[in-house]
Amino acid sequence: MRPDTDRRAATRADVVGDACESDRPRHDATDPVPNPHATEAEVAAAYADPKLANVLYHDWEAETYDEKWSISYDERCVDYAVGRFHYAAGVPAKPFERALELGSGTGFFLLNLMQGGIAKKGSVTDLSPGMVKAALRNAENLGLDVDGRVGDAERIPYPDDTFDLVVGHAVLHHIPDVQAAMREVLRVLKPGGRFVFAGDPTRIGDYYARRLGRATWWLTTRITRLPALAAWRRPQQELDESSRAAALEAVVDLHTFVPAELEQTARAAGAVRVHARTEEFTAALFGWPVRTFEAAVPPGKLGFGWAMFAYRTWQRLSWLDEKLRGLLPRDVFYNVLITGRKAARTDRR
After folding, report:
1. How far apart are CA 333 and CA 318, in angstroms?
2. What's the CA gap between 103 and 126, in Å, rounded?
3. How many CB atoms lie within 10 A of CB 315?
4. What is the DSSP letter of 34?
5. What are 186-204's pLDDT values in tens digits?
6. I need a surface site. Which of 46, 82, 102, 339 has the fewest CB within 10 A?
7. 3-class SS of residue 163
8. Which long-range contacts (CB under 8 A, 24 or more apart) does 218-221 make?
9. Entry pTM
10. Rounded Cα gap, residues 193 and 186, in angstroms
11. Of 78, 155, 134, which Cα lies nearest the Cα of 110?
């Protein structure tokens, strides 16, 4: 069933101003407008402001983000999102009534978790107006009950004790003060509520993934200069724009994590029952060059056969990585997942 008219009216992103006093989205004519084409001057200014860099970078990516990262809202990604949740936090006894995705991007994690029966009603928030717009559009297309606001993870624009669950995917490494964000997560959670964050880079994983990605970009953009491979080269304007936006990664990717230290950060913020797990080693060694290559060639050039090859190979390597979890230190895997709870009232006695 698709959302009714009133629900559709309640899905605009909202400006973050003073702390919210209502749990309903606000509507005003000053809502921020997505800026998908950052100029060189704007990029230069963003180097001194990580939050501005996050807005520019993610506004630039918003309309193509799902395609770039092979994100979908079908069985494939539902299974992936639900699998990450179960791996981090176990199988919930019943669906969470209301969930928030922090740094939602296009809504990949929350919307697929909702389709997988993890949560009933959702909210999305992100610094990027473009990402909130895309997430709400995706939610409406899926007929999901979701509202959204443009907001800062260090000052979440929802009242205390609002959510039963807070989730995020590949978001913690973008937040300047992770402990402050964790405190905010605990503030908006109801007593006993859970958080689950997945998809953030470990320190060791980031080291090898970035080098593989940079090498792949350098090689692809140079080989496609050859006349015989001209059809495989994106227009120079697009490559230049991609390079400018990609340069912001040095600003927007603020952290890498040691799992034990991330656990300590969550506990210091006040979380209880905290634990971190890691995943993807061989899958990351394969996946980062593949995704970088896909971003460097014209959209649609590789076709469905390539997509299935990449996906099936990633699946096989992920299976291998599951076997390696007990053999290798958790720090060498690429992704870290962390879960914990807000103390229940009985825990405070």
Report:
1. 11
2. 4
3. 13
4. P
5. 999 999 999 999 999 999 9
6. 82
7. strand
8. 220/292, 220/293, 220/296, 220/297, 221/296
9. 0.85
10. 8
11. 78
